[in-house]
Design goal:
Blueprint (H helix, E strand, L loop, with lengths): L10 H9 L22 H19 L3 E6 L2 E6 H36 L1
Antiparallel strand pairs: 1-2
Helix pairs in contact: 2-3
């Protein structure tokens, strides 16, 4: 190597190369390839761990609790309240992810066309 410097590459070339990259590895579909082995991603591990902890929490907390919101007052089992709140949180989380993905897609489309 000569001094450890990398040659300058025009931005248009980098964009073209980046847009041609595939999300699937080259060894996909090859029998016995490492890509064919079932692997757990970090997101799946986190989701399964969170669901397990939520289940344990719900099984240990079955006593009824009184909930008060403004002028409403009602009694629910704590496990049901936990399940409802976790479900609403998951819906909001997924919804925000969809909005983010849509905004990024629109921004990429605008950048390509204009």
């Amino acid at each position: 190597m000569t001094g450890g410097r990398r040659p300058q590459v025009p931005d248009s070339y980098q964009e073209a190369v980046m847009s041609q990259q595939s999300s699937t590895p080259a060894s996909a579909g090859v029998p016995g390839a490492a890509a064919d082995r079932a692997r757990l991603s970090g997101g799946l591990i986190a989701t399964l761990s969170g669901a397990g902890l939520l289940l344990v929490f719900m099984l240990q907390n079955t006593e009824p609790v009184t909930l008060t919101l403004f002028f409403w007052e009602f009694s629910w089992p704590l496990w049901l309240f936990t399940l409802v709140v976790a479900s609403l949180g998951a819906v909001v989380w997924i919804g925000l992810g969809i909005l983010r993905r849509h905004r990024r897609r629109v921004a990429r489309r605008d950048a390509r066309s204009g």
